[in-house]
Design a protein that fits this description.
heterodimer; A: about 900 residues; alpha+beta; 4 domains; six-stranded mixed barrel; 22 strands; about 55% helix; about 15% strand; B: about 110 residues; Arc Repressor Mutant, subunit A; 4 helices
Amino acid sequence: MRQLRAWLSRVGELFGKGRREQEFSAEIDSHLQLHIDDNLRRGMSQTQARREAIMKLGGVEQTKENYRERRGLPLLEVFFQDLRFGARLLHKNPGFTLVAVLTLALGIAANATIFSFVSAILYQRPPVYDSDRVLVVYGTTAARGPGANVNPVSAPNYFTWKRENRVFSDLAALEPYISVSLTGKDEPERISANRATANYFSVIGVAPVLGRAFANGDDQAGHDRVVLLDYRFWERKFGSDPNVVGKTIRLNGAEHTVIGVLPRRFQIMSFRSQVWLPLVLDESQQGAAARQTRTLYLFARSKPGVTLDQAQSDLRTLGSLAVQLFPDTETGRDTSCLTLQEYIIHDFNANAAFVILLSAVGFVLLIACANIAGLLLARATSRGKEMAIRIAIGAGRARVLRQLMTEALLIALLGTIAGLGLALGGTQLLHKVLSFNEAIKMLDMQIDWRVLSYTSAIAVLSALLFGLAPALRAWAVDVFPTLKNDSTKVSAGKKKSRGRSLLVAAEVAMAVMLLTGAGILIKGFLEGLHRSLGFQPQHLLTAQITLPESHYKEPAKQIEFYSELAARLEAMPGATSAAITSNLPAAGAGFMSFLLKGQENLSPADRPRARYYVVSAHYFETIQASVIAGRVFAESDGPNSQPVAVVTEKFVARFFPQGDALGKQIRIDSSDAVATQWRQIVGIVHDVKSWPLNYADDPEVYEPFSQHPAAEMSVVVRAVNDANSLAPGLREAVWSLDRDQPIGSVINMPDLLGNETAPDLIFSELMMVFAVLALVLAGIGIYGLVAFTVGQRSQEIGIRVALGAEKKNILRMVLLDGLRLAAIGAAIGMLGAFPLPRLFEAALYDFHVLGGWLFVIVPALIGAVALLACYIPARRASRVDPMVALRYE
Amino acid sequence: MKKPEQRDLFPGALEMMILRTLKRQPLHGYALVQHIKRTSNDLLQIEEGSLYPALQRLLKEDLVKAEWSISSTNRRVRIYKLTAAGARHLERQVSSFEKMLEGITRVLARGES
């Protein structure tokens, strides 16, 4: 009880502090006075009496400090006192405060912005019920591709696993990434669609906001003309009509009844779509064709208590069982599962980029911290006397340390507030820049509590980092020399600036590493970009067309439509030629396995593979890919004539090392029902890049469209001038053939290539921004140190000048001091940057770039910045007027 | 720099002496010091600076109370008085101190023989 009362009175005293202090001062005064009176009575002189009294008391100020520590709540009170003092100091030095806070704010903003993006991806909760129990089951293959190792599975496997598994309470199948034609409502339109089994929405636990989800029977053939709408699609196409349920829309030429609208929040990052249709699967189809038709992703709800490990091991068993039973189609394939949340992260496949970006901004923050530490150290030097006095009059060293750390925290606090303000804009900017990616566009990127806690954590860490050096300096202050010395010193002395020199060298080293890293990524991007595409993208207009099955099921009809379309497009004024292709050039055509004569007994997994295109007669002429040997396809290559194929140089080099490809036979494995025939290789064309940034060409093989027609094709038209001016004519041509035919993304080739390279470009640009930031900060660091040293040495320089040193000698002396430091830092940074190319090669898919000239340019750049940063203060030093400098005292 | 309050005394000794002195009569700080010195025949040199933090502690714990008044030499002084709680505290302290002293004396006496 008494303790409580004592504590309360202490809290009270936090406020009544002024009165207390006065009372105590009065008491000490009266004590001294009484003592002096006594001493005087004993016959001492006034001075002697006072001196004796003070010595007996043991130091007035120390006694006061001792007394103060007894009183109040020391920690809290001291903290407030330090805070007030720190705020006053910052207020008194607006220049210092501005630079320190701004520097830190930049570092914090960069980190908060990147983290908000990373955390939005990593921590998004999928909009499904009890999401930890929702698993995605997918296939994996032994080969490593550019994306995540995630493959769809076949219907026979779905049925078997649904029946045989012991870990899921239910399993549903989803066929994503399809598109359907929407007609009868405005212009015909191609919209994205997902097909799902009837139990899908009950497995993931999502209910529509209007109407109902799929029910049993919806996925039976003949009863499947129902559709669920995405919320945004419902807003856009139906103006949020509340009575939409029961209405019909025309999809792929057939009426579908709208049964419901899905919630606004329901968009799963990897599986977005505008409409949802029932997935009709036939369990009796168990043949090789059904096994090789892999289009499904399976969604499971795990039984209560089943862990992810258990689910994965159960699936492994099922997967290996399939391999044993169906070695022809299942060899080399495995299956696995992840929770939906983990799957999305895995599928997004950007962990390496995340790590690289976060390290880059981490470096920026470290450099910012080093700068602030440098500023604080500079101030600590001029505050050495203050510290010595504080310690001399009774402040404990721990107390001084605490005060300095409080000041550092205050700077960190201000920097964090400013940084978060910047990050607010930064996140919006980043989100906008990244919105070319539809998945990122729907991400909720904001400064949430995760970003705030992360930012606070790095801010405190930064404060510790940059507060440490000056605090240690204060700790080690030698009271008497500091008090005695100072005013008489002439030169700053090497020892005093050693800490700062170390910081600046470290800063330069980090900037060099960051610049080199960013440089390597940019160099890789440029090298990929500047390698010849193998065709001329200028003046090419492209479009996507998918003929609905309802009208164009027969191959003959497909051939008829596309041949006529190509003819009409070529006849357009302003067009020189047009062609049809299964895949646009440099747009990532898929690999297909094939056989050469004499290899017939190779199992599918062991067969050679090449990127596969189906193109019409004028394709190579249209994209202007040059022919190396033989001929390309002509109108004479019809459905009934000799099957032919064209291959690329790389194909010949890889599979016909003797170069005798022409006339040889090839059989391309086809995923669809069209019979695979032996074809004769009739021509060799120049390599065309399979992606716009590829470093090396893949082997490619072409089939004529007339011999392997399909419903889903792309169109390329070469214009005389502006490709975009052909767009209306292209639409007109399609609709004159079939007015219900939707046209997907009409876009000119350079724009398309730009979209494809956007992620890499933005990644490189982000890295460049951070590298430049690092460079600027390091420059400021060098400047700060040199300018400060010059200020400290102005007397020394004055003496030198007075003794006859020339201006250029002074200039050289100061310049060399700064440059030496930069050189040491750069050398260390180069050592650190040396393994970067190999590090990136391991982390990023298909990335082989050497540092090369970067190892010359980066140090040169740093050197230039350092030179500039040193020159400004050096020039000032060379102009020092000896009279002014020496009279300074 | 924080100094230990009783360099040559055991913990609580200074407080005990202050309380004992104040029990006899209320005194101001300077008089307290002089009194302790005098009565101990200058055997105990208490550091004057450590007196006030000790007084502060006692004030906090309500063992003494303080009042401003005017000394005989016409100086403004702060007079410290023992409270009832202080008197009880002193009694307890003294008796436990005596027990301790007795124990120490016995051990020392045994050691000598």
